Amino acid sequence: MDLFDRILKQAGPLGKYAEVAEGYYMFPQLEGELGNRMTFNGKEMVCWSINNYLGLANHPEVRKADAEGAVRWGLAYPMGARMMSGNTQLHHKLESLLANHVGKEAGLLVNYGYQGVLSAIDTLVSRHDVIVYDAESHACIVDAVRMHVGKRFAFTHNDIDSLKKCLDRAKRLTDGTEGGILVITEGVFGMRGDQGKLKEICALKKDYGFRLFIDDAHGYGMLGATGAGTAEEQEVTEDIDVYFSTFAKSMALIGGFIAARPEIIQFLKYNMRSQIFAKSLPMPIVEGLLKRYELLRTHPEYREKLWHNVRLLQSGLKERGFDIGDTNTCVTPVYMKGEVEVAMALVKDMRENYGVFCSIVVYPVIPKGMIILRLIPTATHTEGDIQITLDAFSAVREKLESGGYNQFVPEVLV
Fold first, then answer.
1. Which helix (H) or strand (E) holds 131?
2. 364 preceded by a cis bond (ω within 30 of 0)
3. Domain range spanning residue 120?
4. What one-character-per-residue DSSP string does 200-262 give?
5. Strand-pair category, 332-337 with 370-375
């Protein structure tokens, strides 16, 4: 069969909805200033779909730093990969600040969060090593595990007994060999909103001798006394061997960083192919990140405002009888029942008639018959935004339960 013939016959689990979904349910175009209110489909919406946790995306000092950095350096500088010609003192400064903040001695910038996690894991393990990972880990972790040519075991999400069983198997395979064990989990799971059980996992290190890698994309900047993330929140900073976070959440930019012992960072610097063979982060981005880091560290009131909004939103949903699972972070999933077409009808009603824009998650990401509407509170949201949203959720639930969306036929939107 011709390669393209096969591709065109198999659109994929999400691609099969493209004709009716693209531009509205998938790949929607939000317009206007990044914030709590944005424009979609020509209408102003209360927006719950951008990871601008601390409100830094449109902060005037951030905008000024970004603009001045672009004028001063242009977007090309420095040219080349870090190893060859793309290294600067500001890159080192940012790495040092970030590593120190999360309690590590050394840090390494990466160009993209997804790519950074995938390539860091790929670099750390050999065919002799065993990976043990949470079954509900982010796609970047799953893809890294798929690349691993050695053994790997997935433990049931946040289930320590399941983890122990996987570790027993991993230990039998590695004892007396040159192989080791790498356990991977997340600080905050971006779909459910619950924290990884880092404290319980770390308590197993002495018995199993594994190293621990955490992806704290949704934790850094939001959790912990200083915003240093989930490890700080759970008081296990010293037990985390490799810490990763992206800049795409609290820092409202692009890229990410890894923090660990100096020898481990040195190894990654000289062996991580995605960075050795990729252009360095442009200087305006590095300068912009330095400004964001400064604001994150010197303005705890941004984090306080964020958590005020989180508590108000989540308590309001619970009081109205909504199921938000076991989230204990900012990520706020609302679980409902319905098929894909019902989910489309509900979301369209919420956007067009109630002015509320949030992300929709359906099968195959979650089981058939389930709907998740995911809300991302930020420091920029107002109590008025929250009230509008709570009222909208109550209204659409009533229609959902009465079968008001059952006859919906999604029209071709583009």
1. strand 130-134
2. yes
3. 74-298
4. HHHTTHHHH--EEEEE-TTTTTTSSTTS--HHHHTT-GGG-SEEEEESSSTT-SS-EEEEE-H
5. antiparallel
Provide mean pLDDT across the span 26-34. Answer: 93
Please indicate, yes or no, whether residues 136 and 216 belong to a single structural domain of this protein. yes
The tokens for 113 are 């969060």
User: Which residue among 281, 298, 315 closes a domain?
Assistant: 298
Would you call 389 helix, strand, or coil by DSSP? helix
Q: How many CB atoms lie within 10 A of CB 93?
A: 13
CA–CA gap between residue 128 and residue 40 (Å, rounded): 50
Show Cβ contacts of residue 205 under 8 Å, excluding neighbours closer than 6 positions. 212, 239
**Among all chains, which residue has been given the structure tokens 């008025």?**
384
Contact 170, 151 (CB under 8 A): yes
Q: How far is CA 186 from the centre of its chain?
A: 9
Q: How far is CA 125 from CA 95, 111, 382, in A?
A: 23, 21, 46
225-251 confidence digits (pLDDT tens): 999 999 999 999 999 999 999 999 999
| More confident site: 218 or 404 | 218
Residue 5 resides in a domain: no
Average pLDDT for 30-43: 95
Distance CA(363)–CA(211), nearest Å, equals 34
CA pseudo-torsion sign 378, 382, 387, 388 = negative
**Within a domain: 408:** no
Residue 269's region, left for phi above 0, alpha for psi from -120 to 50, else beta, is: alpha
Residues near 294 by beta carbon (within 8 Å), at least 6 away in sequence: none
Contacts of 176 (CB under 8 A, 6+ apart): none
Whether 221 maps to a domain, the answer reads yes
Q: What share of the chain is helix, strand, coil (3-state, %, to 5)?
A: 45, 15, 40
Residues belonging to the chain: 414
> Using CA atoms, how far apart are residues 288 and 32, in angstroms rounded to an integer?
21
Give the integer Cα–Cα distance in Å for 288 and 355: 32
Query: Residue 258: which of 247, 249, 164, 34 has the closest Cα?
Result: 247
**DSSP letter, residue 80:** S
For the whole model, what pTM was predicted? Answer: 0.95
